[in-house]
Amino acid sequence: MNQHDPSKSQLNFRFQTTCRTLRLLTTLVFIALTHVIVSAKAQSTITLESPSTPLTLLELYTSEGCSSCPRADRWLSGLKDDPRLWRELVPVAFHVNYWDYLGWKDRFARPQYSERQRRYARQGYAGGVYTPGFFVNGGEWRGWFSRPSLDTSTKQPTVGVLTVTVDADQFTATFKPESDIPALQLHIAVLGFNLQSDVRSGENAGTKLRHDFVALGYDHIPLTATGGQFQTRSSLPATNIHGGRQAIVAWVTAADKLRPLQSVGGWLLESAPKHPTELQ
Fold first, then answer.
1. How far apart are the first and last CA of the chain?
2. Which residues neighbour 53 within 8 Å (Cβ) at sequence distance 6 or greater?
3. Which of 6, 27, 249, 250 is most buried, judged by most C-beta within 10 A?
4. d(CA 101, CA 201)
């Protein structure tokens, strides 16, 4: 028999061996791909949970068109290195649009942020509408102008645990209150960091402004009561500015009220670039 002319049985054996090898390789590739998909999904899911005592919600109302605001913006940026960040303190900067007429249109400003600050004044929580304007747990904080040091050590009674889970562009929020509350609302914001603008006109003309904790998107949603807790599931607020590091903050209030009952916050993109994102 010619050794270069294999028999039919030998050909069948080789064919079966090749098929088994291909099946094994296909299975291994499928397992590897499944592991990658599951790992990617796990990495995209972030859960933030507050303690039962309330965190301090710090709001800054600011504008790139206000010459008094850069100092407040710099102070707020310093909180990135504060050990209390997200553990005791939840900061957010709302850029208002009522100074745009002075010659520079603030790209971070939204009318709803200006209206939120006006609501504080209408409900008696502020003596007026101005920038920079600070609010701590829903109350006007004029003390920043004389002593910009925020005390978060005051012991607070337990109010309940707020949990927010983010999966891609969707989130689920659950609040378990310590006492009976008839109706609640969730407020949620996507924050931008390491952002900067070259201001060419207005009160800050010729200045490079740098920003952190900027509300790039904000929404408020009714919570549904189910079995002693309140829940909602929805999409994250839409943002029209991307780049830089991002975080998410959320807080719960009584329906149609401004004072927070509980807050929570944390980083969304741990691996995002830390260099400033230039906005021309």
1. 81
2. 155, 156, 157, 158, 159
3. 250
4. 11
pTM of the prediction? 0.82
DSSP-derived 3-state class of residue 81: helix
Locate the DSSP E strands across 82-159. 89-95, 133-136, 139-140
Provide the phi-psi class of 261: left if phi over 0, else alpha when psi is between -120 and 50, else beta: alpha
Span 31-50, pLDDT tens digits: 444 333 333 334 579 999 99
pLDDT in tens, 87-134: 999 999 999 999 999 999 999 999 999 999 999 999 999 999 999 999
Q: Is 3 helix (H, G, I), strand (E, B) or coil?
A: coil
Instruction: Quote the CA–CA distance of 254 and 174 in Å, as a whole number.
Output: 14
Cis peptide bond upstream of 132, omega within 30: yes
Task: Identify which of 154, 96, 135 has the alpha carbon closest to the alpha carbon of residue 253.
Answer: 135
